[in-house]
Amino acid sequence: MIVPYPGLRPPSDKPIPKPKRIGVVLSVLNEHYQTTIHQGICETAFQLGYEVFCIQGGVLNESLDLVRKNVIFDAVRLVRLDGLIVLTAAITTSGERAMIRRLETLVQTLPAVSVGYPLGGLPAISIDNKHSFETILDHLLNAHGYRKILYLGGPELHADNQAREVVFCKTLEEAAAKDASIEYQIIHGDFQEGSGFRVVHELVAQYHEGRFDAIVAANDNMAIGASKALS
Prior knowledge:
This protein is of the alpha/beta class. The chain has helices at about 30-50, 65-80, 90, 95-105, 130-145, 160-180, 195-205, 220-230, and strands spanning about 20-25, 50-55, 85, 110-115, 125, 150-155, 185-190, 215. The strands form two sheets. The protein has a five-stranded parallel beta sheet with strand order 2-1-3-4-5, with helices on both faces. Strands 7-6-8 form a three-stranded parallel beta sheet.
């Protein structure tokens, strides 16, 4: 998808300059995290007089057929681009090293920025998972007094999920060493709303009440799904 810049046209006797074009590599534009970032990129690019070329290639994993795997790489190779913004957290799970190495090679051909986590030495915009999760857990334990906490995680091999799960476990293990009533459970989903709903719905149906006091979800989508299952 190209977002054109409708700026003033130069006099007709002069060639029309081509606007800079930024490629945005993501999984698919039907998920809140990705659509929000894409919208912000498009709005800023419009103000700067840039075009945005959106490349939706799905998640890079070994289960994809070869044609779908090549969508991202073929698009970047065939379309004129002046730079790339890669939503690494959306298109990789950290488990498919061959695909990630190929992606690292790809981004060396253009100026690029990673949104999610570092990729091949690129500048990266990342979330401070440690501080965020420590703050969340401190609030649940000390402000509300919750003692049985469920971690609703994303894919086990995803870098963001791993970072958040490490902080979750470490924080609660340290708290449990001082208070034996503190317990936690970990169940993995896939970062999608449906998995959050399914996991919590099944737990509620199985245990009814008393299994957990609070839920910490690895992302907003699963938190929304969990909330719907509890309503």
